[in-house]
């Protein structure tokens, strides 16, 4: 009433229609502007998402071919139209595979401890430090793995297995968190029903609790794999860079997809002489984009499959 | 339910008291083994974390105890006459600057996205939209580095030049903007994109928890939607938003590849955001120097890594503390 | 200040589900109108359509007209925000803003329209509103304490003070005492009796004694069964409704034979 400026002063009192129809224009405009601002914040976030995916796909398909996927970089030099990511894919699978083998038992058992056994100060400490571990920068995990192995194998150690240990440090807390969440979803009635039948606690956990939550746990593990499979920094410093195929995690350097992307990127443009026929100036960038495409496809597939598992198998836990 | 399925598969119970006792002890053993394994796994987490700290300190020790003169002699990239602390200082500064820049860019946008998902978009779209934002978190950092270095940086150049031309009188934007824009401002933008999902996810959850009662109270007083958000949603979510921002900060501090692949490094305490060759972060510096470093150099790098570890630890712990404190309060009403 | 409200052929839908059917009634100014009836009969839903608060619920919509002083609240030029400004609401559970002090809670609605309210004017308004809500004497020494520090009944009176601070025409109350103890309930009922002289009040209640004690007119709502819409069975002076209702269903409900 005091804020209807169009109202002539000392005139009749505002009618009911005035009161119900005259919104304060300033407030109405603020509301509309904030609506636009908030909606555009969301649209702004879509810009990088769409542009990352678009640039990776459109630049990546240039080199993507069965040849690119099936050869290593051995003997590839300069701007020649050759070379692929086979060795990097192999290295990524091996290193991530070993990291998963380490992380899943430790992570799952820790989650079981926290949900089924954990009481008192140890459980509180574990919960707290799992949170702390979630925040360890990946490069610090790499330094840790390096320091650990350097203690036994001397300085300058570069092994695939060291990379796996570094990735495990990053992966374990994620596995613990997601498994813990899933185990807590299992209703206590199920456990009690099992105890009432005389089944001991550990068998109840294995046969009832884990069985009920297995889909959720697998989803969590796959998402954690998807998270560490793209890790670059720790692998760059502990697994090193190599051009040829290495299938032994415990000997010699090992290439991985993310490090390959970085390696090709950092080599930059090739100075091609004008008369050279077999020289592509942007070959390194092209390979980087190609490898990035392969990496993003792997990560997205893992995410997708994980979510599908969660969707199609989860209802079984509820019935 | 599934426990009843198990019933037929169980072995026939042994008869007599003796059988019962035997069965008990063998099961007790398995049970004890199982619980010991579980407890051991939990303890392993503590051991691992302690080992991270101890190994970093042990490895960093040589560099921390070597006199400055010797250190500078032995390590090519430590300038003459500089101490280890003098070397770490600009790196810590660069790390904080990049992270704070990213945070300043990401928090308003993430708040907007979270509000859009929680209070503006139709309810049934909330979870698909949240998933779209989560996709940003799934993209590996090296791809952000590649994208930032090859695609985004050239496109940001005009914006930075405009800033330098028009706001160059502010020291932050001192002209001329470097070309190519391998500057901390570009890094800040890329890092902001990378931490957007985590901040959004936490903020979204908090905003969705706003009690309906408070929202309706505001609306019934004649508040517009935005006024309702300001009266009920934001005050309720403030502490959650703070901890979300700190989690994002922790992530930005430790990010390596995106910085390494974009930033042209330098070791100064400079606030000139558009100048190349002024800043470097701890993580990117480690990735850059590690391969060619001699043993003492590795030790010095690990010392810087230790500093990073401590900083992120402090930030993350503070964030968790805010979250925990908020949990205590939410039961109050 | 108080205005009369006319409902004509009002239908309320949730999506395709008809929740309340064919309600026509007149709500008199400067009086208390009570809505009674069994759970799920649509009384609260109907109450919310009187200040368009049902629009907060996804899928809810209205057919028919609700006129205040001859102006249709659902007319195309009417602003929902302005409607709620004129028709205040008090909810089932007290809901003061937890981050605001007692005084700020009272001023919350006023500040929306007049953000530069003077300090003297503000404190005068706080006192007047809290006195109007019979709360002033209990809180005058701690106006800067958080609203959530009060007891449930005090919080509810704070919410009433917050609603009357913006000087609405009509006050809607959705079971305002159902979360309160008997003594707090009594305090609210006394307050309703005081407010009657200035406001048009509509109260939804489960408690028939309360309806009999506080209201001038009573409307009885009922549903024929689950999935059927709620209907206004009859509406009359409260005294008549509780002594000689014309419908059998009303008499059954009031005498406690069902519901």
Automatic annotation (TrEMBL), chain A:
<dbReference type="GO" id="GO:0005315">
    <property type="term" value="F:phosphate transmembrane transporter activity"/>
</dbReference>
<protein>
    <recommendedName>
        <fullName>Phosphate transport system permease protein PstA</fullName>
    </recommendedName>
</protein>
<keyword id="KW-0472">Membrane</keyword>
<feature type="transmembrane region" description="Helical">
    <location>
        <begin position="288"/>
        <end position="310"/>
    </location>
</feature>
<dbReference type="GO" id="GO:0005886">
    <property type="term" value="C:plasma membrane"/>
</dbReference>
<feature type="transmembrane region" description="Helical">
    <location>
        <begin position="126"/>
        <end position="153"/>
    </location>
</feature>
<dbReference type="InterPro" id="IPR005672">
    <property type="entry name" value="Phosphate_PstA"/>
</dbReference>
<feature type="transmembrane region" description="Helical">
    <location>
        <begin position="208"/>
        <end position="229"/>
    </location>
</feature>
<dbReference type="Pfam" id="PF00528">
    <property type="entry name" value="BPD_transp_1"/>
</dbReference>
<dbReference type="InterPro" id="IPR035906">
    <property type="entry name" value="MetI-like_sf"/>
</dbReference>
<keyword id="KW-0592">Phosphate transport</keyword>
<feature type="transmembrane region" description="Helical">
    <location>
        <begin position="159"/>
        <end position="176"/>
    </location>
</feature>
<feature type="domain" description="ABC transmembrane type-1">
    <location>
        <begin position="89"/>
        <end position="310"/>
    </location>
</feature>
<dbReference type="GO" id="GO:0035435">
    <property type="term" value="P:phosphate ion transmembrane transport"/>
</dbReference>
<keyword id="KW-1133">Transmembrane helix</keyword>
Automatic annotation (TrEMBL), chain B:
<keyword id="KW-0472">Membrane</keyword>
<feature type="transmembrane region" description="Helical">
    <location>
        <begin position="240"/>
        <end position="263"/>
    </location>
</feature>
<protein>
    <recommendedName>
        <fullName>Phosphate transport system permease protein</fullName>
    </recommendedName>
</protein>
<feature type="transmembrane region" description="Helical">
    <location>
        <begin position="33"/>
        <end position="58"/>
    </location>
</feature>
<keyword id="KW-0812">Transmembrane</keyword>
<feature type="transmembrane region" description="Helical">
    <location>
        <begin position="129"/>
        <end position="153"/>
    </location>
</feature>
<keyword id="KW-1003">Cell membrane</keyword>
<feature type="transmembrane region" description="Helical">
    <location>
        <begin position="183"/>
        <end position="203"/>
    </location>
</feature>
<keyword id="KW-1133">Transmembrane helix</keyword>
<keyword id="KW-0592">Phosphate transport</keyword>
<dbReference type="GO" id="GO:0005886">
    <property type="term" value="C:plasma membrane"/>
</dbReference>
<feature type="transmembrane region" description="Helical">
    <location>
        <begin position="300"/>
        <end position="323"/>
    </location>
</feature>
<dbReference type="Pfam" id="PF00528">
    <property type="entry name" value="BPD_transp_1"/>
</dbReference>
<comment type="similarity">
    <text>Belongs to the binding-protein-dependent transport system permease family. CysTW subfamily.</text>
</comment>
<dbReference type="GO" id="GO:0005315">
    <property type="term" value="F:phosphate transmembrane transporter activity"/>
</dbReference>
From TrEMBL, chain C:
<dbReference type="InterPro" id="IPR003593">
    <property type="entry name" value="AAA+_ATPase"/>
</dbReference>
<dbReference type="GO" id="GO:0005315">
    <property type="term" value="F:phosphate transmembrane transporter activity"/>
</dbReference>
<dbReference type="InterPro" id="IPR003439">
    <property type="entry name" value="ABC_transporter-like_ATP-bd"/>
</dbReference>
<feature type="domain" description="ABC transporter">
    <location>
        <begin position="5"/>
        <end position="248"/>
    </location>
</feature>
<keyword id="KW-0547">Nucleotide-binding</keyword>
<dbReference type="InterPro" id="IPR027417">
    <property type="entry name" value="P-loop_NTPase"/>
</dbReference>
<dbReference type="Pfam" id="PF00005">
    <property type="entry name" value="ABC_tran"/>
</dbReference>
<dbReference type="InterPro" id="IPR005670">
    <property type="entry name" value="PstB-like"/>
</dbReference>
<keyword id="KW-0813">Transport</keyword>
<dbReference type="InterPro" id="IPR017871">
    <property type="entry name" value="ABC_transporter-like_CS"/>
</dbReference>
<dbReference type="GO" id="GO:0005524">
    <property type="term" value="F:ATP binding"/>
</dbReference>
<dbReference type="GO" id="GO:0016887">
    <property type="term" value="F:ATP hydrolysis activity"/>
</dbReference>
<keyword id="KW-0067">ATP-binding</keyword>
<keyword id="KW-1278">Translocase</keyword>
<dbReference type="GO" id="GO:0035435">
    <property type="term" value="P:phosphate ion transmembrane transport"/>
</dbReference>
């Amino acid at each position: 009433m005091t804020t209807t400026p169009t109202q002539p002063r000392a005139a009749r009192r505002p009618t009911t229609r005035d009161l119900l129809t005259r919104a304060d224009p300033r407030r109405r405009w603020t509301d509309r502007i904030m609506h636009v601002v908030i909606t555009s914040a969301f649209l702004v976030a879509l810009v990088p998402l769409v542009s990352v995916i678009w640039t990776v796909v459109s630049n990546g398909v240039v080199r993507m071919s069965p040849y690119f996927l099936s050869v290593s970089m051995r003997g590839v030099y300069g701007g020649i139209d050759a070379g692929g990511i086979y060795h990097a894919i192999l290295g990524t699978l091996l290193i991530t595979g070993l990291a998963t083998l380490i992380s899943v038992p430790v992570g799952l058992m820790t989650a079981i401890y926290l949900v089924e056994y954990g009481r008192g100060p140890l459980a509180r400490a574990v919960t707290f430090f799992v949170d702390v571990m979630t925040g360890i920068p990946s490069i610090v995990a790499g330094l840790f793995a390096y320091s650990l192995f350097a203690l036994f194998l001397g300085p300058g150690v570069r092994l695939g297995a060291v990379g796996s240990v570094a990735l495990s440090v990053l992966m374990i807390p994620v596995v613990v968190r997601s498994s813990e969440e899933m185990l807590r979803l299992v209703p206590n009635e199920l456990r009690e029903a099992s105890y009432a039948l005389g089944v001991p606690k550990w068998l109840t956990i294995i046969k009832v609790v884990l069985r009920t939550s297995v889909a959720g746990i697998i989803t969590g593990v796959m998402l954690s794999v998807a998270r560490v499979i793209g890790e670059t920094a720790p692998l760059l410093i502990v697994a090193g860079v190599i051009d040829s195929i290495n299938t032994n995690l415990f000997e010699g350097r090992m290439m991985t997809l993310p490090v390959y992307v970085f390696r090709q990127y950092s080599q930059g443009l090739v100075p091609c002489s004008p008369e050279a026929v077999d020289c592509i100036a942007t070959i390194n960038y092209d390979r980087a984009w190609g490898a990035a495409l392969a990496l993003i496809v792997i990560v997205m597939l893992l995410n997708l499959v994980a979510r599908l598992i969660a969707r199609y198998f989860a209802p079984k836990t509820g019935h | 339910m599934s426990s009843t399925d198990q019933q037929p598969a169980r072995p026939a119970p042994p008869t007599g008291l003796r059988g019962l006792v035997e069965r008990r002890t063998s099961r007790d053993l398995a049970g004890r083994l199982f619980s010991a394994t579980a407890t051991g796994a939990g303890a392993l987490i503590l051991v691992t974390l302690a080992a991270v700290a101890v190994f970093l300190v042990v490895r960093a020790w040589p560099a921390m105890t070597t006199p400055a003169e010797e250190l500078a002699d032995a390590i090519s990239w430590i300038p003459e006459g500089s101490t280890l602390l003098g070397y770490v200082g600009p790196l810590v500064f660069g790390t904080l600057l990049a992270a704070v820049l990213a945070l300043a860019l990401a928090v308003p946008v993430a708040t907007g996205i979270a509000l859009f998902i929680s209070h503006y978009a139709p309810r049934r779209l909330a979870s698909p939209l949240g998933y779209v934002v989560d996709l940003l978190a799934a993209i590996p950092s090296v791809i952000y580095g590649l994208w930032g270095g090859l695609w985004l940086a050239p496109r940001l150049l005009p914006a930075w030049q405009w800033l330098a031309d028009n706001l160059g009188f502010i020291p932050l934007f001192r002209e001329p903007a470097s070309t190519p824009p391998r500057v901390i401002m570009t890094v800040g933008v890329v890092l902001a994109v990378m931490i957007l999902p985590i901040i959004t996810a936490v903020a979204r959850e908090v905003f969705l928890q706003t009690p309906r009662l408070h929202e309706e109270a505001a609306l019934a007083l004649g508040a517009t939607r935005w006024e309702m958000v300001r009266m009920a949603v934001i005050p309720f979510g403030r502490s959650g938003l703070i901890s979300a921002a700190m989690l994002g900060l922790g992530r930005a501090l430790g990010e390596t590849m995106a910085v390494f692949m974009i930033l042209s490094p330098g070791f100064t305490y400079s606030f000139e955001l558009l100048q190349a060759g002024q800043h470097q972060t701890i993580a990117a510096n480690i990735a850059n120097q590690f391969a060619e470093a001699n043993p003492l150099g590795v030790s010095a790098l690990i010392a810087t890594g230790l500093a990073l570890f401590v900083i992120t630890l402090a930030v993350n712990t503070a964030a968790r503390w805010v979250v925990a404190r908020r949990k205590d309060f939410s039961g109050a009403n | 200040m108080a205005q009369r409200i006319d409902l004509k052929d009002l239908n309320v839908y949730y999506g395709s589900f008809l929740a309340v059917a064919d309600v026509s009634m007149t709500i008199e100014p400067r009086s208390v109108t009570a809505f009674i009836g069994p759970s799920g009969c649509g009384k609260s839903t109907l109450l919310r359509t009187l200040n368009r608060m049902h629009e907060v619920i996804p899928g809810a919509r209205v057919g028919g007209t609700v006129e205040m002083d001859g102006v249709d609240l659902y007319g195309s030029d009417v602003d929902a925000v302005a409607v709620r400004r004129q028709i205040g609401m008090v909810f089932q559970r007290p809901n003061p803003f937890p981050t605001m002090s007692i005084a700020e809670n009272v001023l919350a609605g006023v500040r929306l329209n007049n953000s530069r309210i003077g300090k003297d004017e503000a404190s005068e308004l706080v006192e007047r509103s809290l006195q109007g809500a019979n709360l002033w004497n209990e809180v005058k020494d701690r106006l800067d304490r958080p609203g959530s520090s009060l007891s449930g009944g005090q919080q509810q009176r704070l919410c009433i003070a917050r609603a009357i601070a913006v000087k609405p025409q009509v006050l809607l109350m959705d079971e305002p005492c159902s979360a309160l103890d008997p003594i707090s309930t009594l305090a609210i009922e006394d307050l309703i009796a005081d407010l009657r002289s200035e406001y048009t009040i509509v109260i939804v209640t489960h408690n028939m004694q309360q309806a009999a004690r506080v209201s001038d007119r009573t409307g009885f709502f009922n549903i024929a069964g689950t999935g059927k819409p709620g209907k206004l069975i009859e509406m009359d002076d409260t005294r008549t409704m509780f002594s000689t209702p014309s419908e059998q269903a009303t008499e059954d409900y009031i005498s406690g034979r069902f519901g």
